[in-house]
Amino acid sequence: MPSVLEILVASLLLTGTFLVAVAALGLIRMPDVFCRMHAAGKAGTLGVVTIILAAVVHFAGGEQDVTFRGLLAIFFQFLTSPAATHLLARAVYLCEYPLSERTQVNELKALLPSRPDEVFNRE
User: To 10 degrees, what angle do helices 4-29 and 33-58 make?
Assistant: First the structure.
């Protein structure tokens, strides 16, 4: 009979695997690069975090070094993934990557210049 800890680890692993699979499916099925980045950024980050959390819970009774490294990995995942996704989306927008035909609102048009040259040549 599996223990409560084993059931928790298995459920975290299954949840993380499901979220990573949803992120991969979003990369394939979404219409434009912004939607793809959203799918990869949200579901991918949460999937990786739950998989790392499963490892932390599994090895919690052993060395504290594994727990510290796992929590540090989760911290850096939450720190770097949104920032990288934001910077990539901004660069893609400034390079005028075409939006999906289903996109109805473009709120960045008033805030960002339409050409990347205008960002660096402001006077």
Answer: 170
